[in-house]
């Protein structure tokens, strides 16, 4: 529900500024197999793209890219903490399970 509100707000903002293009990058943490994480990140990025398209953003303006675990930022920090419970490690890595949206507006293209 919290993410839905964020996506709704972002969708309205994107529609209002008249985007030239947007890239949605899906990310995962470093746990699990690399191939699995790549597929999961692609699924995450495509889910956000589908949300934007359903909200009225033209599909040809949005690109979805899976980054897998290639940009996981918390692995070293969380691993160094040597959690006794795997659940604590998973919680620590939560910030790596994300999506990023990079937007190019029509104004940026004209400059």
Q: Which value, in Å, is the CA radius of gyration?
A: 16 Å
Average pLDDT, to the nearest integer?
A: 91
Q: How would a crystallographer describe the biggest sheet?
A: 3 strands, mixed
Order of helices and strands: HEHEHHEH
Low-confidence stretches: none
Task: Give the termini distance in whole angstroms.
Answer: 38 Å
Helical percentage? 40-55%
Q: Name the structural class.
A: alpha+beta
The 3D shape can be described as elongated
**Order of strands across the main sheet:** 2-1-3
What oligomerization state is this entry in?
Answer: single chain
Percent of sequence in beta strands: 15-25%
Tally the helices: what do you get?
5
Number of strands: 3
Could you explain how this protein is built, in words?
The protein is α+β, with helices and mostly antiparallel strands and 111 residues long. The protein has helices at residues 2-17, 34-54, 75-80, 86-92, 106-110, and strands at residues 19-26, 62-66, 99-105. Strands 2-1-3 form a three-stranded mixed beta sheet. Helix 2 (34-54) links the parallel strand 1 and strand 2. The model has no long low-confidence stretch (mean pLDDT 91).
């Amino acid at each position: 529900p919290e993410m839905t509100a964020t996506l709704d707000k972002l969708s309205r903002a994107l529609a209002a500024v008249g985007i030239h293009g947007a890239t949605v990058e899906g990310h995962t943490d470093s746990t699990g197999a690399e191939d699995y994480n790549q597929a999961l990140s692609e699924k995450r990025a495509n889910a956000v793209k589908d949300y934007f398209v359903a909200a009225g953003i033209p599909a040809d303006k949005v690109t979805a890219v899976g980054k897998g675990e290639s940009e996981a930022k918390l692995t070293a920090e969380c691993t160094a903490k040597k959690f006794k419970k795997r659940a604590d490690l998973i919680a620590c890595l939560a910030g790596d399970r994300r999506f990023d949206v990079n937007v190019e507006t029509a104004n940026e293209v004209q400059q």
